[in-house]
Amino acid sequence: MQPERTTRAAQPYAAVALQGGMAEVVGALPEIFSELSAWLATHEIAAAGAPFITYKSIRMPHCMAVEVGIPTAALAPADERVRCDELPAGDYLETVYVGHYDGLMDATAAQLQWGADHDVEWDMQVREGVEHWAARLESYVTDPASEPDAAKWQTRLAIKINS
User: Fold this and answer.
1) Which end of the chain is more exposed for a tag (fewer CB within 10 A), N or C?
2) pLDDT tens-digit profile of 48-59?
3) Confidence class of residue 100 from pLDDT cuts 50, 70 and 90?
4) Sign (positive/negative) of CA torsion 16, 158, 120, 129?
């Protein structure tokens, strides 16, 4: 599927920061999403969208800094574990990947390649070999608990671009 240029408003969220390799990050996701859901419920804050990962910095394949988050309707007060912030407003290049999460790296690589082929300027800086992204998201549109067929899972890939 060809990426689509979209404009997004700022989106408040609650998240847990995590660092490590791909396997460590992926392995921690179910527990962190459960923890965040419980945190939101305890603080009587409703989720305002699909859970996501935002990749803050990447030095593949060894080290990533990510935030595992859930959108909220308004900025919430943070604590020692849960960080509350806003995803930045602006222009994004988005695609919807359909299939098992195993294919997300290839889908993201295809989106990045499409951007390179079409002279897209990502809102990203490289310092000392590390990519620092303004917003590079995977939003998990389909809940695997509701849809057991992984071939039907939808994940929205959204990467902020310079306008």
Assistant:
1) C
2) 999 999 999 998
3) very high
4) positive
